[in-house]
Amino acid sequence: MAGDDVSEQPHQPHILIVGAGFGGLGCIHTLGQLETPARVTIVDKKDTFTIGGTWQFVWTGRLSQDKTRWPLSSAALPPMASLMLNTSVSKLDLAAQKAILANGTPIAYDQLVLSPGVVSDGSRIPGLTEHALNLYCFDNVVSQKEQLEHFSQLAEAKVLASEKATLLISIAAVPYQCPVAPWEVAFLVDAKLRATGVREGARIVITAPNEWPLPDPTRPKFEAEMSAKQVEFFNNKQLAALEPNLAHYADGTSVAFDLAWAVYPQRAPDFVRDSGLVNARGFVPVDLQTNRIASEALQLLQIPAMVKAGTSHVPYCIGDCCWTMIQPELPHPKAGEFAWQMGANVAKQIDATCRGEALPPPDKRKGSCFAEAGNGTVLLLEPDLSAVLADPLNGKPDARVSEAPEAAKVEWVNKHLARIFNGSVAPFIS
């Protein structure tokens, strides 16, 4: 009978995105714009979204912490997407194309996009977790504010004694998230101490394990700013160990401090590391243009069938968790805007695969990084990797740095909140 003639519905591939940060949200946002014929599940261990560039408003006393996080349940997701919050992945079975949740539930997928961010791992440096606050931890922001208030009081006492208290800001390993952040921290502390009239009682010292953690074109501007603010910088200082009030470096030197804040070594989360996908630095190696996990990583795991079958089922890794190089042997910078753009690029590749079309060329990749410099100003760093993506062997990265008002940073935050939440949360106001 005609009424019994039901056409078979085509199979819709299932895309699993692990992580609802900038990268994962950029991916689902673009899949929705493209109306990709697929089902999408997004898993995140948290239920809120935050932007690290807003935390400074908390520890400098301008905002309360609750003003710098937003409920992921309010994110404007396309109908194809389902969101699993407060849900952790404990294991990846790449051969079977399954992710195992912490409660033991398996989730099968046709395409995997890893965007879980990174974790800070202080265990690699003796004494680091005991004696230095981790600058890249949302839960530490209130403690950071309290420590700064205490340090300011100490600096006041040092002024009276014609001495100086030392704040040490140590970058323990590169690469790391938001490369300008240590300088922003130093400049804001400088402004805070000057505002209370106790700057003469303090030293502010930044150390880094390499020559210069930011793009080379930025160096003159940042060095001029450090000179004007009397911020000391020591490069090629690999942090080796900390003890109370003393940091030791691999070259045998040391720095005495009264307060230490640090960029802890960062790596992929445990479930990614335990899958065997990471390199010696703790990140997942990927192709620069596509963000597909490098074939050698899969072959080492004895999953050659996935590689031989073509690219359609090779997993992707985007954002801070991934590792890829730009010439001449520089790690790709880790920043939220780059993660979003990686996610969008991956979404376009997945969409083309779902439709049986040719893969698109990589998009442009240009970011905006804001380092607040105090007194309502910021140093705006604009790295541009577009030429590198277009021609990985010969393309050169570019970077520009300029001065801008603090309002430019607030506008940048609100641009992303509008993209992610589409008006369902209040704008960020400094």
UniProtKB/TrEMBL annotation:
Residues 14-135 form the FAD/NAD(P)-binding domain. Gene3D superfamilies: 3.50.50.100. It comes from the Eukaryota. One of its GO terms (molecular function) is oxidoreductase activity. PANTHER family: FAD-DEPENDENT PYRIDINE NUCLEOTIDE-DISULPHIDE OXIDOREDUCTASE, PTHR43755. This is YjlD protein. It comes from Symbiodinium pilosum (Dinoflagellate).
